[in-house]
Specification:
three-stranded antiparallel β-sheet, 211 residues, 2 domains, 49% helix, mainly alpha, Helix Hairpins, minor pseudopilin epsh fold, single chain, 8 helices
Length: 211
Amino acid sequence: MFELPDLAYDHAALEPVISKATMHLHHDKHHKRYVDVTNQILEEKGQKPASLEDVVRETAGKADAKKLFNNAAQSWNHAFFWACMTPTKQTPDGDLAKAIDRDFGGLDKLKEEFVKAGVAHFGSGWVWLAAEGGALKIIDTHDGEDLLPNKGQTPLIVCDLWEHAYYLDHKNDREAFLKAWFDALANWSFAADQYAAAQGTGEAWRYPLPA
């Protein structure tokens, strides 16, 4: 079945934006729980899916599969979120930087719109930078929803808006968290690979295949 992916960095590597304590709670507890419940439901149903992406797409919008969708999507979303972060500060370059300039008027404007969308989002969810139809756009989704069921949309980066992602470190100041996250942790090399995949070059990120 599906396994909890290891982090590509130490639990303390994202400090001070995200503390070691938050990462242990978020990755080792919250994320693991989503993966465990996903596996439990699949085992009870006798299902052996080829990929987690298939599970998310096949259960999206189905009332009788809501629990499986929520846990599978959250398993995927969190693994993607970990990949969207790096301890080394980066800035976009190449084709992605050109697309950001074209569609937002520069990185500062993208940050402004990204943070604005995240702050305005009511309740739990995610804020995404995505490529669709040759253009970049910011999308926010509620709870465990993501972009996998939406044909033609490729996520480039995402930030977690659930309170457990930032409350220990930033209390109720989601705006401060989003600004600090965007400035210090966004993995623009990963985003560039995702953008290239959206343009037909290379493969988009996928959750590790089941063991």
